[in-house]
Amino acid sequence: MTLIGRARARGVETLTLDSPHNRNALSSALVGELADALDNCGKDDDVRAVVLTHTGTTFSAGADLRDPPRPEALVALLRQIVETNRPVLARVTGHVRAGGLGLLAACDMAFASTASTFAFTEVHIGVAPAVISLPLLPRTDPRALARYYLTGERLDATEATRIGLLTAAGDDVDTVLAPALDGLRRAAPQALAETKRLLTVRVLEAFDRDAADLTALSARLFASAQAREGMTAFLERRDPPWAL
Asked: For the chain, which domains are there?
């Protein structure tokens, strides 16, 4: 079963997360297929930019709790999005949770419909947004991130744009995305690659400095008793024992 759809139009490769049975959760298989697709795009001279989108009403529900990727694999995927020499743009028409927000932050631009919602739900199941912090912390408002990391509150597209999680939002996501794609199609490939390199210096510094520690933190938390209970409660659709 293919979990990543691919289509091309006028130099823009669209990669579609297509795992409806688990709301496009980041399983080990999906992470691996997406990494392979991005690698192919980076080697194809006919690809000017990449759009990352989804089927269904959820862009990504976060890590697949039944088949989670290794923390190292998720770090490698996030870094690949940041490092690839093609601009990567997220196109969201649904909900994004937890690890899915790491994909948005790793992209060079992110656009969403106003019906989309976002939440860092990790604290509710006993873990922390560890490895996804690598692209999130350098690109997102720190005060706002503290609130949404610690509370797991849901935020709308307007708030997500204000804090830097999104580039822009609109009732029709394709209307707000179109000018960006038009600009990329008019840009020289060499200029795009070098300009992206300028823009990602701080993000890649975070990967170089913190990836090992955050990978270890993620592994430790996911193996903890509280996380096991939190994930079990989530899958059983009940509150964990610490919920007041």
From this structure: 1-172+189-244 (3.90.226.10)
